[in-house]
Amino acid sequence: MKKLLIVALTLCTSYLVKAQGEWGQKFEQLGTMLPTPNSYRTASGAPGKDYWQQKADYDISVELNDNNQSITGTETITYHNLSPDRLSYLWVQLDQNMRAKSSNTPLVTTTAMSDSVSGKALQTMINDADYDGGFKIAYVKDMSDKGLKYTINQTMMRVDLPKALEPGGKVSFKIAWSYNINDRMLEGPRSGYEYFPKDGNYVYTVAQFYPRMAVYDDVNGWQNKQFLGRGEFTLPFGDFTFSVTVPADHILGATGTLQNASQVLTQEQLQRFEKAKTTFDKPVIIVTQKEAEKAEKTKSKEKKTWTFKAENVRDVAFATSRKFIWDAMAVDINGKTPLAMSYYPKEGNPLWEKESTRAVANTLITYSKHTIDYPYPKAISVHAASIGMEYPMICFNFGRPDPDGSYTDQKKWGMIGVIVHEVGHNFFPMIINSDERQWTWMDEGLNTFVQSLTQKEHYPDMPIRRGCAACIVDYMKGDKEGIRPIMTNSEQILQFGNNAYAKPAAALSVLRETIMGPELFDYAFKEYADRWAFKHPSPADFFRTMEDASAMDLDWFWRGWFYTTDHVDVAVDNVKWYKMATNEKGFENQVTASGEVMGADGKKAPATNFQEAAETFVFSGTSDDSYREFMNKVDDEAIKQKHINTNFYELTLKNAGGLVTPVIIEWTYADGTKEKEYIPAEIWRHNEHEVTKVFAKNKEVVNIQLDPDKETADVELDNNVFPRQDVKTRFDQFKEKKN
């Protein structure tokens, strides 16, 4: 009996495994894959009635030493506990420690030798640069100058509070620090300095320059992921006052509103600055190239302090150099007039003067249309070699012409593309403030998608590299060993650009253009932006809002595109052509859809062409049993007469890629006309591998093509066409047959 039970259980298990293999539940709800809704985050995707988030205000003073490329600073942080929890300690992020000698980043970075290794590559490979990086913390004190106990764990610092911070309370404390600014050419991107040997000057693009509060929220508690270099930043909002002391001949751009323009600009520069605030058609040059070139040579030993204020931002950054040219123009955003600005050395001209600030303005216009009106007073693009990096109101962008000032279209489009992308980050994640350390796609993917909309609107001749279905095909059909789902932590992603930027952008393009339609999508996307502006959304909040605001169940879409590595590959596996029999004798022949007669074994080759003549079916009257209790009946004769000359096409489609998708069919008729038909993805809900469907057409079909405009990211186009030959050949055969 026990043996029989084991056999029965084995058979049952085998059946379940087989059933699951045949039906992968691609249309089941995400369910427990998403966090349970609560009073903080609702099932609709909106913030709940008890939603809360912390606030951190800063008063910062730093000095940049142009002689030894270092930063020295002090700050007062006021932390507001708006959570329902008592906090006995606070976590502060020390992101510069990623470059410290004791950093884990080089230890966990894999390396390999090759036949030829450059000096720079070798230095990077073995972490051999002569650079003493990382924060040097001088003190952490309370407001009475009494030292606070603190513990540094790599890029995180715990500050122990003498008394627990109660809900609704606030605490202020002071930190003093210094660090050596990194050479970006040797030590990598994001922030640092670039040296110009010809004139002996520096361009500083400075960020992560102060100890910053970590996020404490209802999802994870304290953010506890170390900064290894790729997963970016998770920061609370707050109000900032900060001052930066630099050489007196430097021009400085930063997050926030300049408080002391009359002290740091000449009278002529002030007048140009004021003019820019009311100039909408073209940039106004505030600091000219001639003035910048003069400053390059004089190199003042005096100092100036630039002071800024910024409200409701999550971070601040700045750029400074005596080499900077500065231009600006106003942008009309529904009556608000933020300034679009650019800072660039002469090495960026003529390209930067011509294109940069206009690209900033174009970005603010389109992003405001699709998300929320841009709320900040300005947006800055700074020219820096070989970088694209973003911070609130300021970003650092590549795109340097050749020394003679010439540049290719590729260089121009690359520069405009990176400016649009980095300025766009003001919306994702600087305003719609997702957790970059955990979910790169929530800022990079969404931003790349809206970037593609901006490029289409303002630069129709510009090639779209990311943000279209066809753009992601090569990646999605690649070796799955080198691919991970979009819903993967930043540090575990294998192909970062494809996974976090290109694939989610392509997914949203498919969702907008093919599945939801622009009207439904745009409304729901804007609703998400409005709900979560200046808040901390999670992936579930985005997924749920898009469904809630559109009345579309999209769990199948999120599951396939975001949680798996499946790809789209729908094949026309078989086509049969039928017409109604006029002699009511049933099938007149046994010709298959491939044009071949059934073999003795009853098997046939896969269809590659239409049969020479349509197979026939017998039209029969509707039986009385079909009506059940209904007294009324259909007019069988009228139906027969209506369709006596109709062509019926039975299509068998196979889902070879695993990713369920809408089916777009383009029918080409014998008279040369075309018709496009859209079948929702739910066609696969009963069989995720193969479906059969009959279509009635008044005209004879000579060609069938799936996804003719490459809207679904189908990776294999050859199996999308039936017959398995080009349309022209089929037209020629049809004409010969008629003649």
TrEMBL record:
InterPro entries (alphabetical): Peptidase_M1_dom (IPR014782), Peptidase_M4/M1_CTD_sf (IPR027268)
SUPFAM superfamilies hit by this protein: Metalloproteases ('zincins'), catalytic domain
Keyword Amino-acid biosynthesis found: no
Keyword Transport among record annotations: no
Keyword list, A-Z: Aminopeptidase, Hydrolase, Protease, Signal
E.C. code: 3.4.11.-
Molecular function terms, GO-annotated: aminopeptidase activity
Limits of the Peptidase M1 membrane alanine aminopeptidase domain: 370-561
Pfam families: Peptidase_M1
Secretion signal, residue range per the UniProt entry: 1-19
Highest taxon above the source species: Bacteria
Gene3D superfamilies named in the record: Neutral Protease Domain 2
Identification of the protein by name: M1 family metallopeptidase
